[in-house]
Amino acid sequence: MNFLVALYRKLFPSWVEYLQRELSGCDAVLDLGCGRSSPIQHCKVDFSVGVELFEPYLQESKDKGIHNEYINSDVREIEFEAKSFDAVVCLELLEHLTKEEGCELIEKMEGWARKKIVVTTPNGYLQQDSYDENLLQEHKSGWSIEELRQLGFKVYGMKGWRQLKGHRGKIKYRPLVVWEKISHLSQAITYYFPKLAFQLFAVKELGDRER
Length: 211
Prior knowledge:
Blueprint: H1 2-11, H2 15-22, E1 28-32, E2 47-51, H3 55-64, E3 69-71, E4 85-91, H4 99-112, E5 113-122, H5 145-150, E6 154-161, H6 176-190, E7 197-205
Parallel strand pairs: 1-2, 1-4, 2-3, 4-5
Antiparallel strand pairs: 5-7, 6-7
């Protein structure tokens, strides 16, 4: 049974497992807009810093002990010394900024990271209003594969076939358990064909990466 599970995960990895692969060898990671339950908790990282403006999410993440250090701040205003982290990740955050703010943040991320930066964002604009009494959840921009590639990213597709997803990325067909499985299986295809995917997973390798 363990062998079958391992084989299944190898053939159909989750997006978190792709993140684990990208952060392998990155000892210090900056997590911008870390939220309340960052997938960093599933990665083998020696030291991480979580930045979050919405205090209830920050406190929930603190209670879970996901990061070593926390900063309650707006990612548009925070500053770090150059090359302070092996990797800087920005997971499901860019869409909450304007396009100009997002481009400025990516430029800053490149300065803070030694090895790479990792970004996830919906494939194109996805309308979303605020929830959890958190006005920061509103979507202000949408990002395309071409835009991210022009900024130097390699772009992959995540979270399965986009046509299966509706409001806030939830499966829109029933029975839910069947379509969730189909969505997960489709990940094996959408990873290589990001135009079909619900979410974009973008990685930019930097010059200081060890050979």
